[in-house]
Amino acid sequence: MDLTSRSNEVAQWTLVGPMGPKVPSRLEAFNVLAVDGGASYTSKIDVWVGDSDSYLGKPSAPIIHQLKQEKSKSDLGHALELVSNLSRIELHLWGFLGGRRDHEMINFGEVLLFSNKKEFLQAYFYGPSGEIEAKICSHGEWKFEFRGTFSIVTIELSTLLITGNCKYKLEEPTPLKPFSSLALSNQAMGAFQVTSDKPFIILFNYEE
Q1: Labelling 129: which of 20, 26, 73, 172 has CA 20 to 30 A away?
Q2: Per-residue confidence band for 8, with pLDDT thresholds at 50, 70 and 90
Q3: In Å, what is the CA distance from 30 to each residue of 11, 12, 18, 109?
Q4: 5 pLDDT band (50/70/90 cuts)?
Q5: Three-class SS of residue 37?
Q6: What is the DSSP string of 91-104?
């Protein structure tokens, strides 16, 4: 399988993690990269990578990357390396939320660091109910459509603008420190925009 893409194209990949549940068919329409135990939750696997600590043996897949269990990078980190040559990419991450908090935080961190090297990246993190609970975006201007509470987090000093239909706007370029509470618990009432000179994560809260 050719893991490259033309510079003006956006490659689309679904990464399947070990938390499940079953991947919906709409996400299997993209290239599917199963990460270790994620192989149990998808009927289609184009590439598999893992150390078999959450999946016994190896699945049936055209491309298999068997990892050692003693390693200095997570399975997800190794999976991202497999698509590192794609300059423009859209990732759908299924089965990476929940479980151990340290794993979940590192999953966000791996994708944020990965996005820092990309011309264009958007990465959707889906919860078990299928809703997008978080999205990581590379630097640039991004448009969102949402009603509810959202927060924005960065892992490095960034300059941010927030405009549109939300309660708290940053209409002038504003420094945002790593893990700052400045962009915590904003309220969206529809379409809004975020512009950042660094990658960021936006977390969506679905109230009952």
Answers
A1: 73
A2: low
A3: 9, 6, 18, 23
A4: very low
A5: helix
A6: EEEES-SSS-HHHH
CB 160 within 8 A of CB 173: yes
Residue 100 makes CB contacts below 8 A (sequence gap 6+) with none
Three-state helix/strand/coil letters over 112-173: HHHHCCCCEEEEEEECCCCCEEEEEECCEEEEEEEEEEEEEECCCCEEEEEEEEECCCEEEE
What is the tens place of the pLDDT at every residue in 138-177? 999 999 999 999 999 999 999 999 999 999 999 999 999 9
CB 120 within 8 A of CB 89: yes
CA distance 108 to 65: 22
Longest dimension (CA), the chain: 54
